[in-house]
UniProtKB/TrEMBL annotation:
Protein name per UniProt: Translational machinery component
GO molecular-function term, one example from the UniProt record: structural constituent of ribosome
Record-level GO cellular component terms: ribonucleoprotein complex; ribosome
Superkingdom of the source species: Eukaryota
HAMAP family in alphabetical order: Ribosomal_uS11 (MF_01310)
Residue stretches in coiled coil: none
Record's keyword terms, sorted: Ribonucleoprotein, Ribosomal protein
Keyword Ribonucleoprotein in record: yes
Length: 131
């Protein structure tokens, strides 16, 4: 009975919500508790710059650093990436993962999931705002 009860690897999760106005990234532990949440505003970008490509890239780099620190605590760390939305931060996260900043965490990535809700049919949308 020296074996552990569960042989599953601990799976961390990185959630990326990329909207027209901001990019929000959250790193969670395997039990679902958040470790770190970063937004474009947290990193010093204000106004329309929060949703820019640079803000998304910087969020990705900081989350990868936090993920690297968390993965040092476990023996077999794995992680999943969940994408939501079609903002500029979405592509920035993907490019950062392929760049040198993501080379440390990329080998442990097991799944990339797109959780963006896509409306098919449904009820009639609200009237657009006039600007």
């Amino acid at each position: 009975m020296d074996k552990p009860l569960s042989t599953r690897a601990e799976i961390y999760a990185v959630y990326v919500k990329s909207t027209r106005t901001n990019t929000i990234t959250t790193l969670t532990r395997p039990n679902g508790n958040p470790v770190r949440t970063l937004t474009g505003g947290n990193l010093g970008f204000k106004g329309g710059n929060r949703s820019s490509y640079e803000a998304g890239y910087k969020c990705a780099v900081e989350i990868f650093k936090a993920l690297e620190e968390e993965m040092k605590k476990t023996t077999e760390p794995k992680w999943q990436l969940y994408l939501n939305g079609f903002g500029q931060g979405r592509e920035a996260i993907q490019k950062a993962l392929m760049a040198t900043e993501g080379q440390v965490v990329k080998p442990n990535l097991i799944r990339v999931t797109d959780k963006t809700p896509i409306k098919i049919g449904g009820t009639r949308a609200q009237k657009r705002k006039r600007r």
